[in-house]
Each structure stands twice: as C-alpha cells, then as structure tokens.
Amino acid sequence: MRSVVVTGGATGIGYAVAAAFAAAGDQVVITGRREGPLKEAAQRIGATAVAFDAADPAAVAGALPALPAHVDVLVNNAGGNTSFDRPDPADGDLEALAANWRANLDANLLSAVLVTAALTPRLTDHARIVTIGSIAARQGAGSYGAAKAAVEAWTASIASELGPRGITANVVAPGLILATEFFRDRLTEDGIGQRVAATRNRRAGAPDDVAAAVLFLAAPTAGHVTGQVIHVNGGAYLGR
C-alpha cells in the first residue's frame, strides 16, 4: 500500500487521479483550497482531505503536520487558467498585465514547486512525482501556456536532482478534457468541435484518460521513465 498525495484533488482530473489510486488500495490524501468540496470528494473515495492553498508558502508549511510522514507518489495537479477569472488588462496597463501573469505562474508552477520542495524530505526512495501540464505548453495560451512550459523545464531539473534516489519526475500534458471546471462554462460546442477536429482519434478526452497515464508513470515498473512529457490529447499537440 502506497502513500499518495494529490493536489487539487476535489474535482476533475485531480479527483479522477485520486479515485484511481484509492481504488487500487493506496492511502490517498487530497488537497485543495475549497474545504467543502474537498471533504465531500475525500468521503466519496475513502481519502483524507487537507485544505490549503498550494501556491501560498505559509499555507504549505502550515499544512505539513497534516500531510503523510512518508510519500510514495506525489501528483501536482493544482492549477488552471487563472486568466478566465481575471479581466484582460487594458492596453499599456503593465501592472495589471504583471498581476495576470503572476497569477498563472503562482497557480500552475509555484504550487508544484512549493509542494514538491516541502515534501521532498518525505519522499521515499523510488518515489514518483507526476505533474499535470498542458498542451498549451507547446501550442501557447498566454501566461497559462508559459506557466505550463515552465513546469516542463522544472520537471527536467528535479528529475536530474532526485534521480540518484530512484525518484522519477514526469509531466502528463492533457488537451481538451471534458467534465472538468477548467473552462468555467465558457467552452462552446464550436470550441469543442474545433479541438476534437485537431485530434488524431477524433474525440475529446476524459479525466480517466489522464488518470490512466498518471497511474502508469507512478507504477514501480516505470522506474526508467523520467523527465518526460506524456501527451494525453489525442495527438492534438502535433498540429493539424
């Protein structure tokens, strides 16, 4: 039985990942900022809920006593495109532009960096780190795409740093995944159609598609796969 921590585990991809580990018999801790949904999700799958903001250094440090003393698998899923929640900055408003970029970097990059750094002393030898990236790292999407591209570069660094302990670090990069909160109800049928048309298998992804890739990378048999970006987007990252 492994000890698994999944950040952003209350809904969507994070929930599917956590549920898959729990179904496999692992001890799962899910984290997130919204205590209510987090506790409800944990109860449904038999996990433990620890509420905190993964992008806040003080909050991460404060949560450590509630997190496992030994961690076999860490899944950095917390994040999302914060630009959906913020107005576009006016032309020339550099303060607003900087704030928008920092928000996405905090949510998607810093959250993974902080949680991983805080838990590194607790990672067992041959532990697995999987961070959820995005097709946007290759195709671009403003500050969100840049943050996910930075996740890939950072993952390469920690794969090198922690590799001597047998610890692997990889990225799973989804494309369009339905049944999540990512698009904040802004995705139209036309938008779905365009994204599906860009895939090779002509379908949208589901959270379980991503969970399956995460479980593969977390398996004991995947010890020679590290520093990689595994695309779970139907080949859409290849372009049309």
Give descriptors for this structure.
single chain; Rossmann fold; 8 helices; 42% helix; 18% strand; oxidoreductase activity; SDR family NAD(P)-dependent oxidoreductase
Class from helix and strand fractions: alpha/beta
The gross shape turns out to be globular
- Number of helical runs? 8
Largest sheet, if any?
7 strands, parallel
CATH topology: Rossmann fold
**What's the name of the CATH homologous superfamily?**
NAD(P)-binding Rossmann-like Domain
Q: Could you give the order of strands across the largest sheet?
A: 3-2-1-4-5-6-7
What is the rounded Rg?
Answer: 17 Å
Poorly predicted ranges: none
Oligomer: single chain
Return the average pLDDT rounded to an integer. 93
Count the domains.
Answer: 1
Q: How would you describe the overall organization of this protein?
A:
This protein has a single domain (3-238), classed as Rossmann fold (3-Layer(aba) Sandwich), CATH 3.40.50. Helix content is 42%, strand content 18%. The protein has eight helices and seven strands, in the order βαβαβαβαβααβααβ. The longest helix has 26 residues, at 94-119. It is globular, with a radius of gyration of 17 Å. The mean pLDDT is 93.
How are the secondary structure elements laid out?
Layout: E1 3-7, H1 12-23, E2 27-32, H2 35-45, E3 48-51, H3 57-63, E4 71-76, H4 94-119, E5 123-132, H5 136-139, H6 142-162, E6 168-174, H7 189-197, H8 207-218, E7 229-232
Parallel strand pairs: 1-2, 1-4, 2-3, 4-5, 5-6, 6-7
Helix pairs in contact: 1-8, 4-6
